[in-house]
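Note to self: the last two entries modelled the partners one at a time, which told us nothing about the interface. This time every component goes in together.
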Amino acid sequence: SQQGEEDPQALSIQEGENATMNCSYKTSINNLQWYRQNSGRGLVHLILIRSNEREKHSGRLRVTLDTSKKSSSLLITASRAADTASYFCATASGSARQLTFGSGTQLTVLP
Amino acid sequence: EADIYQTPRYLVIGTGKKITLECSQTMGHDKMYWYQQDPGMELHLIHYSYGVNSTEKGDLSSESTVSRIRTEHFPLTLESARPSHTSQYLCASSGDIPPYEQYFGPGTRLTVT
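The predicted structure of the combined assembly is written out below.
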């Protein structure tokens, strides 16, 4: 079964607004990663948060992790039209060198 | 510049043809992966390799096969393409040290008619 579930499935906002995407997972993890995918392209790694961290920032990105609720959120502040993409969470568990990807959130930022 | 490449980017081919999707990386990574992704859907791992002459099947059953004769090269082959193989195929690699962040190629969009 899918490890990560994301919501919303799709999100449409105006440029300048903040966008928040959520990810829930089922098993214990070592770290959780967020990736971005532009239409028809490969994924690009955005940010990683380890299981012993609660919050992490990178530029306009803020990620939180709540291991007790098995959930994470990605906040993009002051969104731009260029942020339009699909965003996926991915979890790494145990000694696994594989990632399990969520179903993704399609973000559209309107100019 | 270190990167990961996939060719072709787009392929439209008839049923029954044999196809090979190429994936190469110049980062010296031991770990490489193939994912299948339908439009707007999640990624499914179909094959992975942790080094030369090492290949494993992923979570999603696939009729494709892979080989890893050289570290930098991880081709995927379909012996007889079918319309059900129509999808996007993404190749990725990761380094040897945790947390194994993955680097993706641009993908190959395959259409089997």
